[in-house]
Specification:
This protein is α/β, with parallel strands linked by helices. It is built from 12 helices and 12 strands. The protein has a domain of 237 residues: Rossmann fold, CATH 3.40.50. The protein is globular and about 65 Å long. The two termini are 38 Å apart. The model has no long low-confidence stretch (mean pLDDT 96). It comes from Aurantiacibacter arachoides.
């Protein structure tokens, strides 16, 4: 495998991928391009010797061209995106600029360096997308397959759907070697604490409310980020140019079940480790109380999709992909990572 350019590689999924790839491919160099906005953290990849962090914007086409050309890179893995639905509702413009215009900038740079200047040199552009582009499922609907009609319901998912179409168009129009993967809800280490799992974990540690949208019964498929990284590796190695692969975790759960599991795991951790009560005295569990007492119902999110579910049959059959993490074990590992890495997340709480 050639050296990689990883966009958004100081973010949650991108940062985990950088660690994963460095461990699996120790001879490869990794150039991380990240704008280091609120969700990008240089410390996420600081310990990866093979990784070079370049602070920059994916909309800077000249910069991307220079990195591809000067570093001799022929594989680009594109994670960089604005991804928080609530933020897309309150401020859609940055989602359009980053997710659509930014992706177009990368595609232009890749086309120029790999096709125009490189005369079709072997390459791969891997685009990381989301199951949210497919819209919402009813309780009895079959899971999303790759052929499912796009029906995005938020500015975030609409911007990702647009970027998916651009990637497809650059393959069919210009011959760029692209693969797209659409993933379900990721969780794991290094996730910025605005998403459900780290938000509720850290709120529980500090005795803050656990805000539950609506009735808490919106359903998502949960994917451990390490499994997602394995899926992307399989796409890079065996994915067919121009194809899309759904990467799921095989854990379709209502949000309330996820929240109850988080509460139970926090209570278990405090029961097993007496030092946690000293470190986090505001947690109900520090006083022998149930973390679940922090659950608080709030007004539902605008346009809140009711259910997502992933059909990963194609990825299993063509790529040999299968998730390795069960949800409860994966969540327990995630909680223990946050407990062991307070120095990473503590500064983020002041942002």
């Amino acid at each position: 495998m050639a050296d990689l350019l990883v966009t958004g590689g100081a973010g949650f999924i991108g940062g985990n991928f950088v660690h994963y790839w460095a461990n699996r491919h120790p001879d490869d160099r990794i150039v991380v391009l990240d704008a280091l906005t609120y969700a990008g953290n240089a410390s996420t990849v600081a310990g990866v010797e093979q990784a070079e962090l370049v602070e920059g914007d994916i909309r800077d086409t000249a910069l991307v061209e220079r990195l591809l050309r000067e570093r001799g890179i022929s594989t680009l893995v594109h994670f960089a995106a604005e991804s928080h639905v609530d933020r897309s509702i309150s401020g859609p413009d940055v989602f359009i600029e980053t997710n659509i215009l930014g992706t177009n900038s990368l595609l232009k740079a890749a086309r120029k360096v790999w096709l125009d200047e490189g005369s079709g040199t072997p390459h791969r552009f891997h685009h990381v997308s989301t199951d949210e582009v497919y819209g919402s499922l009813g309780p009895e609907d079959p899971p999303f397959a790759e052929s499912h009609q796009y029906q995005p319901n938020s500015p975030y998912s609409a911007s990702k759907a647009s970027s998916d179409h651009l990637v497809r168009a650059y393959h069919h129009t210009f011959g760029l070697d692209v693969v797209t993967s659409n993933c379900s809800n990721n969780y794991g280490p290094y996730q910025y604490p605005e998403k459900l799992v780290p938000l509720f974990l850290l709120n529980a540690l500090h005795g803050r409310p656990l805000p539950i949208y609506g009735d808490g019964m919106n359903v998502r498929d949960w994917l451990h980020v390490a499994d997602h990284c394995r899926g992307i590796e399989a796409c890079l190695a065996r994915g067919v140019a121009g194809e899309t692969y759904n990467i799921g975790g095989g854990a379709e759960l209502p949000n309330m079940a996820v929240i109850d599991t988080i509460c139970a795991e926090v209570d278990r951790a405090f029961a097993d480790n007496g030092d946690l009560a000293r470190r986090f005295p505001d947690a109900p569990a520090a006083r022998g109380r149930a973390t679940a007492e922090l659950k608080t119902y709030v007004e539902d999110r605008k346009g809140h999709d009711r259910r997502y579910a992933i059909d990963e049959t194609k990825a299993r059959a063509e790529l040999g992909y299968a998730p390795a993490h069960g949800f409860e074990d994966g969540l327990r590992q995630t909680l223990h990572w946050y407990l062991a890495n307070e120095a990473w997340w503590r500064p983020l709480l002041a942002c």
